[in-house]
Each structure stands twice: as C-alpha cells, then as structure tokens.
Amino acid sequence: MSENYLGNYANNGYVDVVDTSAFAKLMRNVYVWMTLALAVTGLTAAYIANHPGWMQTIFETGLMWVLMIAELVLVVVLSARIHKMSFTTAGIMFVAYSILNGATLSFIFLAYTMSSIATTFFITAGMFGGMALVGNFIKKDLSGMGRFLLMALIGLIIASVVNIFLKSSGLDWVVSILGVLVFAGLTAYDTQKIKFMLRQYGTEVNESTMKIALLGSLTLYLDFINLFLYLLRFFGNRD
C-alpha cells in the first residue's frame, strides 16, 4: 500500500519559488522514472506468467511470502535511508523493487484475461493522469485531505485483513470502492506534495534533488499500482 513517504509540506515555511528549468527537469524525471518502473513491473509479470515452471515455484513453494517480505524491506529501507545512500544505489533498489513487484503481480495474468487487464490499465492511466493534473494545478492545500486519506488507508488495510476471514462479498465490494477513492485521492495529494518539495529544493539538479524526485516517483508508482489493482476488481474479466 502507498505511504506518506515524503512527509508533510502544508505551509510549514515552504517557499514556492519561480519555475526553473531545473524544477521542470526534476518533475519530468518523476514521471519518467515512474513510467519505467511500471514497464519493468509489467514486463516481469508477463514474462513469469508465460513460464509455468516459475509460476509453480512462486505460488506453490512459499516463495511468494519471501518476495513480499523482500518488497516490504526494500521499500521501507529506500524510503527511510534514501538520503544516506547514493543516487545510483537508490535507483538500483527501485528497479529491484519493480522486478519483485512484477513477480508477485504475475498472478493477474492467470486470474484475468489479457484484454481486461489492458482495458483496466488504460482506465487507470486516465484516472491517474486526471488526478495528477488536479494535484499539479489546484491552488487549495491538500494536506488536510491527505491526512484523512492516510487514516482511511489504515482502515482499508484492516478491513481487507478482516475480510480474508469473513469472505464477505458485500464487504469486498465496499473495500474495492473505497480503495479506488483512496488511491485516486492520494494521487492528487502526493502530486501536490512532490511539487511543493521540488519547488523548495529543486533550484538545481544535483544528487540530493534527484533522490527527492526518485522518492516521488516511487510514491506515485505505488499509487498507480494500487489504483490499478482495485479497478481490476471491477473491470477484470475472469472468463
């Protein structure tokens, strides 16, 4: 699930500087790196799904749990220690996380048809793009909404865990709807947050600002993946 990796920005002395070429380049890199990470995840998932032996190893030997724990460790370490590591190391960890995530998401190619996956991807891209535009251009400070969404995210996680045992189709439907709303809202919030962070520190392109941009791309990557997975519950065809 997505987390508030970049911290709060809400009018805490942050100065919204005039646009510079450095700021524009850093913002562009956020989306380029996010797109490349999504491509790595998608290609990895498709490749593993086309190799039954790999799928059997992952899903029948307990390797899935190892991969999920490795993902969690990677994203926590990257988020907490990115400023203490080199940009190259941080980039390699982001790529490694994208590959691991692709391996764990390979099941969707078995659970849903390729056409419904593609359709859901384009729907996700459209919704994500729209909410990113809202976060980029809206003048209203979204930090209050962000705090509410993060609390809703915690509730969403708890409800999802509870429903593993209840197996309630009604609760699953509610969780799916809330999941779409939460991650759509987080996309707008995180976009504004990243914009404010880079406007404060992005007066020049250096290793420090590149790492801020990389962390921003990780945040938006997680928003996109989670939004896609919740939308897939509605648009995924299992036939």
What are the main properties of this structure?
239 residues, mainly alpha, 9 helices, 0% strand, disordered N terminus
Please summarize the sheet with the most strands: none
Give the % helix: over 70%
Contiguous uncertain segments of 5+ residues: 1-18
* Element pattern in H and E: HHHHHHHHH
Number of strands: 0
Could you give the distance between the termini? 28 Å
Count of separate DSSP helical elements: 9
**What class do helices, strands and sheet pairing give?**
mainly alpha
Round the Cα radius of gyration to an integer and report it: 18 Å
Q: What is the overall shape? A: globular
What is the total number of structural domains? 1
Strand fraction equals under 5%
Overall pLDDT metric: 89
Structure description:
With about 240 residues, the protein is an all-alpha fold. It has one domain. It has 9 helices and no strands. The longest helix is centred in the C-terminal third of the chain and has 33 residues. It is globular, with a radius of gyration of 18 Å. The N terminus is likely disordered.
